[in-house]
Design brief:
The protein is an alpha+beta fold and about 325 residues long. It contains eight helices and 15 strands. The radius of gyration is 22 Å and the shape is globular.
């Protein structure tokens, strides 16, 4: 067994590994290793386990940034950790994780995040759950309607800079949130409406105050369609009201609305009734790659309060970290 970096000759074999591991097509698997289509990708950070002269497992580190208490910091996003089904239980994935974490530490990257397929596996490598979501499944009529909906329209290309600004302002107010670059916007959100993905914006007096990313999914019949709201960002209450009213306008006989929010920001205040279906779902996992390096830049801002009634705590210590 050899652990090495990606070679261009690996693309077809690794595309097959991803296809078999995740149920994707061969073409979709190969696209992950194409920098023209996967604009977050750095091929220098694709790891491969080779056995008998062929790639058998792979893992990718995406060079990303996160907002930590409002300030951007580098983060290694672990993705596409996969092993050929015929070569599982040989600790290939664990070997890849140890290699990429060592390289992140050596490169001065102090944080890493991932979307887990198995929480126990990643806990063994130092990751822990950092985010949860409250996921609602609603009839459109369970959402409130608003006359502000008249200010909602479809996305236009010139809206992107303002949407990026709104997204960064929203991200910066959370303890931990991944920063989204323009390439990510254009590639992964399909703002032009391709692949069933769409974007609606709330625009008042020529200024975009909020946006809604959504996807319409067909069910097994015409009465089981889903409006999947993947992101709603609103700078104002009227923008939120208008965008939620947009979702409320779908036919309740044919459609259901699927929408996930952070637990601390429930949708209940905007519902006609609180008697709806909602489930808590796990989100991203986080690891401090370099604990001392992650804490040191913030240590100078921390101060201890004088003990009160025998207690001592750090200001802000009751805040919970979550990724959005």
């Amino acid at each position: 067994m050899e652990v090495r970096r990606y070679r261009e000759s690996d693309r077809k074999a690794l595309g097959q590994v991803l296809s078999l591991a995740f149920g994707a097509s061969q073409a979709e698997g190969e696209e992950h290793f194409d920098p023209e289509k996967n604009r977050r990708l750095d091929l220098e950070q694709v790891y491969v386990v080779e056995e008998d002269g062929k790639p058998r497992a792979t893992a990718t580190v995406l060079p990303l940034e996160v907002f930590v208490d409002g300030e951007p910091a580098p983060m290694g996003g672990v993705a596409a950790v996969a092993t050929h089904p015929a070569y599982r239980r040989k600790r290939y994935a664990g070997t890849l994780m140890r290699a990429l974490l060592a390289d992140l530490r050596q490169g001065g990257v102090r944080l890493s995040m991932l979307d887990p397929f198995n929480h126990a596996f990643y806990r063994a490598h130092g990751y822990e759950l950092a985010a949860e979501a409250l996921r609602y499944t609603l009839k459109p009529t369970e959402l409130s309607t608003s006359p502000e909906q008249r200010h909602v329209r479809a996305y236009r290309g010139e809206d992107l800079p303002r949407m990026t600004e709104l997204n960064e302002a929203e991200a910066a107010r959370h303890p931990i949130c991944v920063r989204r670059g323009e390439g990510h916007w254009r590639q992964f959100e399909s703002l032009d409406g391709s692949e069933g993905r769409e974007t609606a914006v709330y625009s008042r007096d020529g200024v975009v105050e909020g946006y809604l990313l959504y996807r319409q999914k067909e069910g097994r019949d015409e009465t089981s369609r889903t409006l999947g709201v993947t992101e709603l960002v609103a700078e104002t209450l009227r923008a939120r009201a208008g965008l939620l009213s947009f979702a409320a306008a779908y036919d309740p006989e044919d459609w259901r609305v699927d929408y996930a929010v952070p637990p601390g920001e429930p949708l209940h205040p905007y519902l006609e009734s609180s008697h709806v279906e909602a489930k808590v779902r796990p989100g991203m996992m986080l690891r401090l790659v370099d604990v001392e390096g992650a804490i040191a830049p913030r240590a100078s801002r921390w101060s201890w309060r004088s003990p009160t009634r025998g207690s001592r705590r750090m200001p802000g210590s009751t805040r919970s970290a979550r990724a959005v």
